[in-house]
Amino acid sequence: MWSAVLVVTALRAIFDATLPMTGDEAYYWEWSRRLAAGYVDHPPAVAVAIAIFAWLGQTPFAVRLPFVLCGLGTAIFAAGAANVLTGDRRAGWIAALAVSLAPMMIIAFGIVSPDGPFALFWALALYCAARAFRGRSWTWFVFLGVALGLALLSRFFAVALVAGIIAAACAKPYRSMLPRVLLSALIACVVWSPFLFWNASHHWISFTFALVQRHEPQYSFGRPFLTYMYGALAFSPGLWIAATIVALRPREPLIAWTALPLCAVFLLLAFRESVEVYWFIGPFISLCVGLGSLFAGWETQRQLRRGSWTFAPAVILCALVIFALIAPGAVYAGVRRAGLRLNNGGPFEVFTYPSLAKDVRRLARSRNAGVMTDGYGFSSLLDFYGGLRPILIGYDAQGQEGRHWFTDADHPRLLLFVDKVPLAKRADFTEQMLLACKRVRPGPVLTYPLAADDRSVPPRQYFTTWCVAKPGSIAALRWNDTVKVTR
Q1: Beta pairing partners, 241
Q2: The domain containing residue 177 runs over which residues?
Q3: The overall pTM is greater than 0.85
Q4: Do the domain assignments include residue 341?
Q5: What is the pLDDT of residues 159-169, one digit of tens each?
Q6: Residues 316, 389: one domain?
Q7: CB atoms closer than 10 angstroms to residue 61
Q8: In the 3-class helix/strand/coil scheme, how is 178-210 assigned residue by residue?
Q9: Looking at the structure, do residues 122 and 197 belong to the same domain, yes or no?
Q10: Going by DSSP bridges, is the β-strand pair 460-469/391-392 parallel, antiparallel, or unpaired?
Q11: What is the per-residue pLDDT across 398-456, written as a single tens digit (0 to 9) for each?
Q12: Which DSSP state fits 389?
């Protein structure tokens, strides 16, 4: 079992070294260069994880390595929690295998995202809680508090983990330990407090963004069902169905209270707005621990065959995901041979970013110009590969952290706007550009093939526009109505 976990970890490391960075990954890398107690979009754990390994250099592998290690740590602590709760090492093997083979977890631990630290500290909190509840030692309750605090510094959803462990302590087997669990919660709040203080001094922007700005209400009665089906695809049908069985018939209060309430909240929230499948990662880890407990008691050949069918879809999907990440060129060719139409965008455009960044750098420096985009990830990629200081414009709430990195006082007289569509197709930006710039004229169109050996697919095009800036132009291009642009 552990050999399979190590193989998956090694394969993650391989594709981490070969794939170019994505926009979100480069955005979090920007955070790591500007460490703070909090950010608009998320708590600081993702940035700190990158910063710890910054000494390895500025490469995709160095940036992603801490998240590969988070995956290994999550499997270890999930296994430890299952071992402690059941007293059976087989339960730990099953839990570790389920965490490692779920396709969504392959991705979560293979890219830069808050999910890596969040999953690690969720699993660590479960392990500490299991040790504390079984051994009743004050030391483990202190460790539990620290683990919960670190989970809170990774994602907001850890609030449900804290509440779930408190609720588990109210269950009959553990009721006498409620005061100690409340001490753990207090320690967690102390660990979390820098993020809270940061938000208090920034108008509680992280909470506002998470609760109000991230998604617009779009009511749908069918979305909870679709969300569940997407979960089956993302975590593999066998593991998802087995996790559902564990959720409906939980044997352990610690598993039930750390998984069921948050899953129910997500499914109810799906009536109102889109729910991302990766939000289920925390509860899924709890259910994997419960799954280990369930499978550990299976002895008959029929039960073992049922267990193999639980993991078979996960193994197949996991292999497909890893193959697509390690050999994207082969996947690209296979898609073309299957007759599926590709355009000049989509996931394969990540291979054009390094060349684009170098060309934009050369173009901008030839005229001493600054480079601006309206995409926080796109802007960060130009910085990662081209060393171009990010100037983020536009009105999108997502990525608003980047607006603090460059102000009107910093920008040069000449600006180059880089976009994935022609400016003529964006009426709002055309109008605002004419307001903010003394002169606006088209720059060169930069083109890059998605695959050097396949010219039948249109190359990826990037469009540039020159702007001779007026005072206050950056604020105007961010749709700041309180700023007057000098005409």
Answers
A1: none
A2: 2-325
A3: yes
A4: no
A5: 999 999 999 99
A6: no
A7: 17
A8: HHHHHHHHHHHHHHHHHHHHHHHCCCCHHHHHH
A9: yes
A10: unpaired
A11: 788 888 887 766 667 899 999 999 999 999 999 999 998 999 999 999 999 876 555 66
A12: P
Nearest Cα to 24, choosing from 370, 278, 330, 344?
A: 278
Same domain, residue pair 271 and 369? no
- Taking Cα atoms as reference points, which of 371, 340, 339 lies closest to residue 356? 371
pLDDT digits (tens, 9 = 90+) for 103-141: 999 999 999 999 999 999 999 999 999 999 988 788 999
Phi, psi of 442 (to 5 degrees): -65, 145
Residues 443 and 298 in one domain: no
d(CA 475, CA 487): 14
| Distance separating alpha carbons of residues 409 and 402, to the nearest angstrom | 16
Could you identify the residue written with the tokens 């030391």? 139
User: What is the C-alpha to C-alpha distance for residues 242 and 225, in angstroms, rounded to an integer?
Assistant: 17
Q: What angle do CA 167, 269, 42 make, to 5 degrees?
A: 75
User: Quick check: is 333 in a domain?
Assistant: no
How far apart, in whole angstroms, are the C-alpha atoms of residue 246 and residue 173? 19
Torsion of CA 213, 219, 222, 227, to 10 degrees: 10
Q: How many angstroms separate the CA atoms of 83 and 74, rounded?
A: 14
